[in-house]
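Run log // design_07
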């Protein structure tokens, strides 16, 4: 009987010692859970996913070693983990940088920065610019002229513009074809188009380090994928060997496309951006109403 009383008293004490959970605590838990979800969603599509699974195994073994007092294993793992965390940030520095850039491009802070969207007066890509790009790309595809054209969107590409030669000219099919013509001074590198103007040529772009890209694709395609991983730009590639046209956007590559696909893609892009701004401004008005 006394043992039963002891058990009940212990249960009563444990219930009384349960911390009070308020609204703030629930919000705190939800924020942490959401951040963990975002991190897992991000790393599952990168090479860091394999690292994450490896770390999970190491931490599991460490917990087992601690619980069962496997002192040697615990000492090795505890020391390795403390050094390994620093090594993770060093080895996967590009992935962490890309994650921060994706957060900056995302919608997380858009509603808090409405004034920035209202101030920006960047021109939407015009119909004449789209037609000039399509005409030039189809011509270069027919004659197997290698080309790399980057269309800037929200993320600014000033760092890459400075690696090339500034042009600041109206976009015309004839000018694009002439730039990428064989043995001309400007044919090597990328052309960057922004605000319906050819901003710069012979620009150097970051190469992707993805191991999934086909070995038959060359430097142009790797550069197109690389810039699409660090920005929201649309990049058009014309293969010099086969004349096939490819497009990269948001880290994905679409091959063997036609001019109509490019026309539709570039026409829809400003509409999506306008819809996004409309939603943001609508939210902003609701806050003040």
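design_07 sequence
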């Amino acid at each position: 009987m006394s043992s039963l009383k002891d058990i009940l008293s212990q249960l009563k004490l444990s219930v009384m010692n349960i911390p009070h959970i308020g609204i703030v605590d629930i919000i705190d838990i939800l924020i942490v859970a959401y951040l963990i979800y975002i991190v897992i969603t991000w790393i599952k599509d990168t090479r860091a996913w394999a690292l994450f699974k490896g770390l999970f195994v190491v931490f599991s073994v460490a917990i087992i070693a601690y619980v069962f007092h496997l002192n040697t294993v615990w000492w090795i793992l505890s020391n390795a983990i403390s050094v390994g965390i620093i090594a993770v940030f060093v080895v996967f520095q590009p992935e962490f940088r890309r994650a921060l850039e994706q957060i900056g491009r995302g919608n997380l802070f858009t509603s808090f920065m409405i004034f920035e969207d209202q101030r920006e007066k960047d021109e939407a890509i015009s119909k004449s610019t789209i037609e000039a790009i399509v005409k030039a790309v189809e011509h270069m595809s027919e004659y197997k002229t290698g080309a790399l054209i980057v269309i800037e969107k929200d993320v600014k590409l000033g760092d890459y513009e400075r690696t090339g030669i500034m042009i600041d000219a109206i976009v015309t099919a004839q000018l694009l074809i002439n730039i990428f013509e064989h043995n001309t001074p400007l044919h090597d590198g990328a052309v960057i188009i922004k605000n319906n103007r050819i901003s710069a040529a012979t620009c150097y772009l970051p190469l992707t380090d993805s191991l999934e890209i086909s070995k038959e694709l060359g430097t142009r395609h790797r550069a197109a994928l690389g810039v699409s991983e660090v920005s929201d730009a649309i990049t058009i590639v014309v293969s010099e060997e086969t004349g096939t046209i490819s497009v990269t956007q948001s880290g994905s590559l679409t091959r063997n496309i036609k001019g109509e696909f490019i026309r539709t893609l570039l026409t829809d892009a400003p509409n999506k951006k306008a819809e996004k701004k409309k939603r943001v401004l609508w939210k902003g008005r609701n806050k003040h109403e």
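The chain has two domains: 19-105, 127-278.
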